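User: Okay, second chain of the day. Same drill as before: sequence in, structure tokens out.
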Amino acid sequence: MKKILVVDDDSEIALLLCELLELEGFTVITANNGIQALEKFDSSVDLILLDIMMPKMNGLDVLTQLRAKFTVPVIFLTAKDGAQDKVIGLELGADDYILKPFNDRELIARINALLRRTCWDNKANDGFEKPMQYYIDKLIVNRKQQTVLFDDRYIELTGTEFQVLLVFLESAGKIISRDTLSEIVLGKEFIPLTRSIDVHVSNLRKKLPARSDGLPWIKTLRSKGYLFIMDQNDDIQQD
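Assistant: Same drill. Structure tokens below.
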């Protein structure tokens, strides 16, 4: 049974979320401020619903501390609807952003979609086994362990950033549209105004060290999408 940590200083909303999530079969624990959220969080938590505006410690600060050590999926659930607020949240490592008041079914759908993306299946939809590891330049990406190393140094990615990287590796050398990337990674249609997928790609770019061959990792093609660059003289290796 999946465990969700609900963090909200509004007791009525927290109670509503508990009832809704428990009806869907989730185990729920709650916190009414950021400090309490960090105290209650442990490795058994599968996903966090996190409010932004809270006493003692706001949601942005909670997320910053979490992302220093953990890749647990985080959905911001907040009344702050400014585009800049969304971008800041995503840049800090949030996996999704839902506005209050929320639609119950949409919330559950987003939670289930995010949880599915964190449970990697080593079999492709067509029945062929997917590579366990990818190697390109000095980058090593392990699908099962969800680890990323460059020149033997670990690179900390969020769950969503890791999936973006996997999609790029599986499509290396081919153009992938924002619509396709958003459908695969976020489970929803790309909406230009939200910039969600662009922010995740931007975060990934910042975290990947410079390649030894001097090539960029990801090229943005205007009106077409993205291209993950590979050395044209050496195909990407797969185990």
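The CA atoms of residues 55 and 133 lie 43 Å apart.

User: Thanks, on to the next one.
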